[in-house]
Fold this protein.
Amino acid sequence: MSRTMIILLALVAIVFAVSWAAKSASLDDQYDDYISRGFLITLAAFLTLSILSFLYKDNPFYKFAEHLFVGVSAAYWMSLGFWSTIVGNLIPRLSVTLSAFFKVPHIEDEYALYILPDKVSYFIPVVLGILLLMRLSKKAGWISSWPLAFIVGTTAGLNLVRYLRSDFIEQVSSTFVPLLVDWQGTGRFFSDFNLYAYGQFVTMLGNWVIFIGVLCGLVYFFFSKEHKGIFGGASRVGIWVLMITFGASFGYTVMGRISLLVGRLTFLFHDWLELIG
Amino acid sequence: MKFKMLLALILLCFVSAVSGFGQSAEEIMALPDSMAMAPPAPPSNVRGVDTDNDHGHSITLTWETSPDDGAGLNNVIGYKVFRAESPDGPFIERALIPSGGTGHIDVGAKEKDANDYLPDHVGFYYKVRAITADSLIYAESEVFGPVQSYGQWFNTGRVPVLVFVIFFLFVTLFFIQKAKGGANLFVRRLAGIEAVDEAIGRATEMGKPILYVLGLGTAADIATIASYTILGRVAKKVAEYQTGLIVPCYDPIVMTVAQETVKASYMDAGRPDAYYEDMVYFVTQSQFAYVAAVNGTMLRERPATNIYMGKFYAESLILAETGALAGSIQISGTDEIAQIPFFVVACDYTLIGEELYAASAYLGREPLLLGSLKAQDYAKAAAIIIAIIGFITMNFGIEAFKHLFYVSN
Amino acid sequence: MKRQIPLLLVLVFGIFMIFQYFVPHESSEWIYEFFLDWIYIIGIFALALGIWSLIRVSYDKIKYKKPNWQYAVITLAGLFAMILFGFDYGRHFFSAEGLSNYMFRAFFDYILIPIQATMFSLLAFFIASAAYRAFRARSLLATLLLVSALVVMLRFNPYFGPIGPYLEQTASWLLNVPNLAAKRAIIIGIGLGMVATALKVILGIERAYLGKD
Amino acid sequence: MTGWIPRIIAISGSDIGIIISLVVIGGGLAWLLKQSIKAGDVDRRIVFLFIFISVSVPILFPITFSETATPIVKKLYDRIENLPEGSAVLISFDFDPAMAPEVQPMADAFARHCLAKNHKVIFMSLWATGQSLLSTTLQNVVRPEFPEKIEGVDFANLGYKAGNEGVLNVIVTNFRKMFPTDVNSIPLDSIAVFKKIRSCQDLDLIISIGGGKPGAKEWILFVGDPANVPMGCGVAAVTAPQLYPYYPKQLLGILGGIKGAAEYESELVRHYDRFADVKKPGLRMMGPQTLAHVVIMAFIVLGNISYFVTRRRGKKP
């Protein structure tokens, strides 16, 4: 460990201790557990700064926060899955004894009987789950592809019809837009000359852009034909429209991202340092 | 309308003042329910049938509005639908429909213990009440019944989807047969995919590994499935060139599959000895913890190339910018529309949407995969033709064509 | 055998799910709901595989003293501490209150949330650096990207006086009209790609997900 | 506020903030311009530093840029401004805490404006989570800033009622059926605000604040259109584009995101001296937003300058 590193560590430790003390003191009159609260807020601020320090370069503080984050979050999701799915959903339907053990009310699921005898319908996923765990065994590892096949097959079938409907049929049919709006005279046509998409001219312009944009965009996605001639022209228009859209989406997202940073800095300046009211 | 109501109010004040209710005029104004009026004519012709194309537990009702709804006495403000298990009642209120309404779908719960459980195969009786602003003044239709609900075995409203499934299946099978027969199917170049080979070569020269990120999708997401194929291809090349490969995973099942895929590729390349299980490892199933770890890997291992293929969310830009910071060549592909702009901006090559799916066929060059790519193009051509026909019919005021594509729930 | 059964399972369940879509009857609905439940439950079992992989990779790092092995200790410590609090030994042994354990909450509120929010907020910096690096008028396409991003971002500039409203309008027009067209084209493409891939999976043509080819 | 610099660039707030942002960001960018012309690209960390400064300075030392209300906001403002005193305005809080940072400032601004104009205001919520946010507005804005206004006489709080569109369906013809009492269990008949109000048809303006479902769209479909009541709305930035088609026919105006809130607040400050010193979260949030956007745009320009300079240099030799 280099000398600068040691000095830096010591410095951070001192700042941490001072912040803990000061924070506890300032929370004294609000909470009973002010000492642990002071520590936790200081810890949160320290972790926030550790992550931000990554912007300068990779460093031990970032590595610390990163590794802690990975361990804690993995366990968090596992606990959540265990309590909400296994204990919350599965066990009450599976066994009376286990339900009593986990102190959850047993559910007599009459609809399970509707299809399969007794509780078989809830033992199947357990069996499949255990088959999946067989992966860890060298000999029987191949059997873990069965539950996988079940998941992939089911989802593939589900996605096939679902996307065919929502991403294909409905999107194609919503392209049927009137490109000519009933003529209501020149005055009406050019009044409301405003791009908030309600004036007559603007509605028509919008519909044309949408119609041609969709067609050209689709042409761009043709794979089995060389993009040449008219076809190439349409595909070029298609990629223009795509690029304009990507730029606009990018520009639009900036606002939301800045808000996130505002939130984080407000935590540092307000909750931790108490610089602002 | 407003004028009439004002008139009624004035009249009301007058009447109540004269009859001397012992209340101040102000208080009466706040109590509109005591307005005296003639009862409206009842709604007529109430009919009920089982709701079509559903799982049962639902009955569709229609009726004709009261003559005093919007005309005549003009005092109907809505309709109440009542249901009972016998013609004599007791009737329970099921719905309130604003004036002008001529129908209602009475949907009940399918769970037996639910409050508004509506059993199948049980006769029900309905009546409709035209209501006025005064809760005491109303008119009821005749009772209709019995009517039963039951579930159907085929949803006719979804026929368009079925037609397309069959169409797609046939076109795909046709082109696969054709491709098997040796027909040469042309596929245009995809810069992003051609860059993959180049990038692997570069990594070998630099003696640095390749980082492959499968995204946040689950094992069954189509984007992830497409990504496995590309991973298999990349892993094979990597094994041949003897470069390193790092595959951090977000989903444990995806990890399992990726391990199999990479292992198989190393075997194919004739280098099973170079494969080790921890090339592909699980990080955590938490979006930003995963990103934090991958970011750290990028800056510490300095991979020559980062490949991102699959489902990505807000983390796309964090990954791509860190990768650029580490000086890696970056190739990305996702079907997550909101993230495509960020990949396009921050990566060297990006496969946009469908190109990701095409990539697996392009890389494989197998007739089977190419055949289905051809089928995709034909479906696209069909989409364009349908859109043009739709636009023409639409602009000539023919709505029927559009209705062909209407899919009910 | 080892190869055929999974492919058969995929075919059977895939076709079943397609048929299920066209059958509104209750029984088909129940099976559908069960299948989704099952997938969820299997996923939890799979998580154990993941945690196992995480522990093994970290353990190897420590055992062979690989670079940065010290940090693997932190990962493992965090993991086991959180698992312990999550299952709440000692206080509410085996009850759903495990998740309301004081330490579990504290780890969540003061470690997970701050780091997560800060990682997310890094986007504010990266969106700027990406814009700086990539929005250059190198080609026509890059210029289109650049100009439309600028137009939309200019909404946030209050000093354009009379042309301000027009900028605002152009920006929202860009977001409403061409955006709709491009998204629709991409969605139709994606829809087709998905359908084709799903079909390939069901028919057993695309089988990379099963490992060996 | 009164110095010449602020007047020229339409900026107000703490002097330190203005000086720091002008000197550091302006000076820094000028220096970077020189750098870019001379030496090409700058280090990415400098970009990060600028973003950090441009966001943190306005948080620490509040800076507000004067916003000019765009027509879509101004029209709604003008409607509230021009309604005769004592008109009935309903404000519905259709959002949850997650959306609150973006839309609560709008709710506060509308409440201020209506009460300052002596309109009778009716507060309600279609979202269960909206009721506590409604109380927040009452507690932080209405009661401290308008101590002279009496609940029941000048404004009323109906609270939350379950039923989503169903609620709307009923109150369009009768308030009392859905809300026999207000949130404090006082019968509507004994609340002065409701003396002349039987249904939504008697309202002069309805404002829905939110961004989800039920929200402005449902208000239009179930109340605004059938009862022919003028409507306005304030929604999260992501929802705003979906509502543009309703403007200006069904919606008098739309406040979209924090920017819409800021525009409305600035319009209020311009016309009402009493609001000069109240908290204006919309304008305050706009400080970091505007500065950061300007900085990013400046960097895009710098990037292009250095690109063209490098390219020209590359061609010459």
Observations:
- The interface with chain B takes residues 44, 166, 169-170, 172-174, 188-189, 194-196, 198, 201, 226 of chain D (CB under 8 Å).
